[in-house]
Amino acid sequence: MRPKFLLCDVERTLRPKIEFFNEVGFTGTGLVELILRCPDVLRRSVEEHLGPAIKLLRIYLGSDENIEIALRRCHVLLAANDLKSIIPKFELLRGYGVPDQQIVKLFLKNPRFFMHKTLLERNITRLENFRVKFSPGTLIHAISTIATMTATTFEAKCKFLKRYGWSEEHIASAFQKTPYFLMASVDVSPKMFGLSLEKRLRPRTQVLQILRSSGLLKKDVNWSTVMLLSDYTFFRRYVLPFKGRSPELEKFTGFEYSTGNGK
User: Fold this and answer.
1) E strand or H helix that includes residue 134
2) What does the pLDDT profile of the chain (263 residues) look like in tens digits?
3) Is the distance from CB of 256 to CB of 262 less than 8 angstroms?
4) SS3 content of the chain, % helix, strand, coil (to 5)
5) DSSP code of residue 177
6) Which residues have CB under 8 Å from 239's CB, separation 6+?
């Protein structure tokens, strides 16, 4: 915290900002946490900066609930000098055919893609250099995956797969269809990469994506751990409790998880 804020006029400077944040949804300990993590928000004018910033976020994020989530993930959003820098990022992804709903989910998961000057573009370029065409539905997942790895780590994982008999075409195809599979730790890879892409990795990843997009999966899960669950456990934990709550899950009958070992 900055001591000079104690010298501010309470009525003219601090109160309007506190009331503004209350209206947005930050009260009590939530407001205290916001100010402690990003005290510069108190330097910003409600009329000239904070108000327009919230208006812009409402246009692109769609709701005050999403704005609150974004601010909790990235406290510096409202202190940024030029929040309009997020606009080209949205337009870039729209140009690849990614639906706004998916773009918002990426923003809420990792706002730094939109705040950093070149981070999003650099990772898209890395994907293009991989010479794989991603569908709009998987591009967001591919970006999230590639961003977790340096070029060296990515290459090391590819070499590791090749030692288990995977060709470059196999790796490219698997990455195209199921980007998250490359997030697996090398420590668990010997077991996981013995599993069938079509019978286990893809359908389970599809289930997780459906649960996330429907808002039914409330917390992050370890992808590798989920892939290694028994068929029975996976079905009981990630399919059966949500049957009837998402039409897309209806195609997963449980037969493919209750018989065989999914290999």
Assistant:
1) none
2) 455 555 555 566 678 888 888 887 777 887 788 777 777 777 778 888 888 888 899 899 988 888 888 888 887 787 777 788 899 999 999 999 999 988 998 999 888 889 888 899 999 998 888 777 888 888 988 998 898 888 888 888 888 778 777 788 888 888 887 787 777 666 655 666 667 777 887 788 788 878 877 778 777 777 778 888 888 899 888 888 887 777 777 777 654 544 444 44
3) yes
4) 75, 0, 25
5) H
6) 207, 249, 252, 254, 257
Locate 26 and state its tokens. 């930050």
Residue 140 · residue 102 · CB < 8 Å: yes
pTM, two decimal places: 0.66
Token pair belonging to 126: 């890395």
Residue 106 corresponds to which tokens in the numbers above? 């990426």
Measured in residues, the chain has a length of 263
Of the candidates 70, 74, 138, 143, the one whose C-alpha atom is nearest the C-alpha of residue 108 is: 70
